[in-house]
TrEMBL record:
The name this protein goes by in its record: 2-oxoisovalerate dehydrogenase E1 subunit beta
Gene3D superfamilies linked: 3.30.160.250
Top-level taxon of origin: Bacteria
Length: 74
């Protein structure tokens, strides 16, 4: 059970790199990770969150915000 005052959710911004891999950075904490596939990235994010927080302080929910860049020519 999380301790009082603990975060209930953490947000990660996920971007695809030029080489096709994926990068994720937490919006409210200094947590960054990367992986070759989205499936691997999900596990890397979970592991990074568990390692970053003290026992009982990790938020129970992780929200991913996928950012996709597109270029349109006129």
């Amino acid at each position: 059970m999380p301790l009082e005052g603990a975060m209930q959710e953490i947000l990660f911004v996920v971007e695809e790199a030029e080489d096709g891999s994926y990068r994720a950075s937490a919006a409210a904490a200094a947590i960054h990770t990367e992986a070759d596939t989205l499936e691997d990235l999900h596990q890397e994010i979970r592991d990074a969150v568990v390692c970053h927080f003290d026992p009982g302080q990790a938020p129970p929910l992780i929200r991913l915000h996928h950012v996709r860049q597109e270029l349109l020519a006129l």
